Amino acid sequence: MKIKKKSKYIIDAHTHLGYWPTLNTSLNTLLTSMKNHNIDFSIVSFDGSEFKEPNRFNKLIPQLSASKKLLSIVKENKSLLPLIWIRPHTEKNSQELETFLEKHRDFFYGLKFHPYTSRLRISDPRLAPYLNIARKFNYPILVHTALDKYSQIKYLCEVCSLYKDINFIAAHAILESDHLETIELLKKYSNLYIDTAWVNISFIKNLKEENLMDRVLFGTDNPIDGDKTLNEEIYLDYFKNKIRLNKIDYEKLMYLNAIKVYKMDLDKLKN
């Protein structure tokens, strides 16, 4: 059943592709679920986990190989807007990646870093070459945040203060928390944003009260739980605008902020 769209556009700013258990499976699931929920564009990264994880199908793929594979996929699927998932713990080929981006920069929209699956804090010096790539190409960086020892948002804020010309999106607004810590951090760091992957829509009322509706992007982690991901109540509440945001705030949340942060030309993408 298709979900009735309440926003002019919907951009899902946090999605994935990977071998879960196959690449075709994750791609088909992503595209089908986008269609069923009237999602116009998804910002997508190719699983770049650096270590095998228990109870996961993740297949370890070098970052350059994954980027080339993702490039070929998005050329055939214009609704998918790619991020490059970086692997700074186990790989030392940031220069090769930079050369690749010099040739294909117009296809990509930013970088993705997952501290937990890389077992590396974003404040680690090994991230410096990639932060410089983001600076060079004027890319934002989507960063997984959670309560584990690698993903705490305090490390991301350290980097925000050092790289004020780069925009950072704190994925999940700290996973499995009440997300309230992000409120004061958003006020303090003008280059920090959050996304709504596994964030209950009730939290958005806090952002509204603090005049922070310009700093949040709708995102879902789709299709991390397969074809049921977007049918979870936590996301259906967003599609229905359960908290009854006014039109401008709702559209900021669902697509306008993503356009701003990822520097998207919507007219060009629609053609």
UniProtKB/TrEMBL annotation:
GO terms for molecular function: hydrolase activity. SUPFAM superfamilies: Metallo-dependent hydrolases (SSF51556). Gene3D superfamilies: Metal-dependent hydrolases. Residues 74-263 form the Amidohydrolase-related domain. Pfam families: Amidohydro_2. It comes from the Bacteria. This is Amidohydrolase family protein. It comes from Candidatus Onthovivens merdipullorum. The lineage of its organism: Bacteria, Bacillati, Bacillota, Bacilli, Bacillales.
